[in-house]
Amino acid sequence: MSDKNKQQNEPNKKFDLKNQKHRSYLYTGLFFAAVIFFFIINNTNGGPEEGPYPPNYNVDKSNLVNLSDFKGKVVILDFWATWCPPCRKGIPDLIEIKKELKEKGVEVVGISLDGFTRGGATKNDVIPFIKEYGINYPILVGDLNVAQQYGGIQSIPTSFVIDKEGYIVSYYQGLISKEQYLSDINKALSKDYVADKKYMAPEFSLPKAK
After folding, report:
1. Distance separating alpha carbons of residues 208 and 60, to the nearest angstrom
2. Secondary element (H or E) of residue 106
3. What phi and psi values does residue 106 have, to the nearest 5 degrees?
4. What is the C-alpha to C-alpha distance for residues 83 and 36, in angstroms, rounded to an integer?
5. 77 and 199 in contact (C-beta within 8 Å)?
6. For the segment 61-116, what is each residue's pLDDT rounded down to a tens digit?
7. Which one, out of 47, 101, 165, 204, has a CA that is 20 to 30 A from the CA of 30?
8. Of all helices (H) and strands (E), which one includes residue 42?
9. How far apart are CA 141 and CA 110, in angstroms?
C-alpha cells in the first residue's frame, strides 16, 4: 500500500468540535479545571475575615455579644468613646443604674467607637479606661457597620433605651441625666407598658473589649 493510501486510511487525530467524543473530552476537562480553580481560590489566605473589626483587638466567636442576648431585659445602649468629655461625664450614672437596677432586669451596654473615630488613635485606651472608671457593664468594640445600622451616629454620646421585646423606647443625642434614663426604664418596666412596635433595635454581633 502506498504512503498516500496509508495516510488516507489512518484515523484523523486532529481535535474536532463536531466530533461528539471530542466535545465530551473538552467539557470534562473544563469541569475539572473549574473545580481546581475554585478549590485554590477558597483555600488561599485562610478562611473569610470575621468582620470589619478595628485593628489590634482579639476577636473570636466565643467573645461575641449579640443584642438578642439581652432579650427580656430593658437595655440602655450607649455609643461612646474615651476621647469624648460628655461620654466620660455620663458613665458614672450608667454604672449606678447597672448597680441599682440589675436585679430588676435592666442592662447597660456600652459600644466603644474608639476603634475607627479619630483614625483609631484612642483604640488602645479602652481597656485602661474601663479599669480606671470601674465600669461594671459590658463594653463592646463598635465598628462602622453598627454605627450605620443605628442611624449613622452623628455625635456621641448617642444612647437608646430598648424594651424587653427589643423595641426602641427612646433615643438621645448628647449627655442624658440619670433621671431621664430612670423615667424611660420605669416606663418600660411598668405593668401598663405596651410597646409601640414602630422601631425594632437592629441586631448586632460585636466582640467584647479585652
Report:
1. 10
2. strand 106-112
3. -115, 135
4. 50
5. no
6. 679 999 999 999 999 999 999 999 999 999 999 999 999 999 999 999 999 999 99
7. 47
8. helix 20-42
9. 9
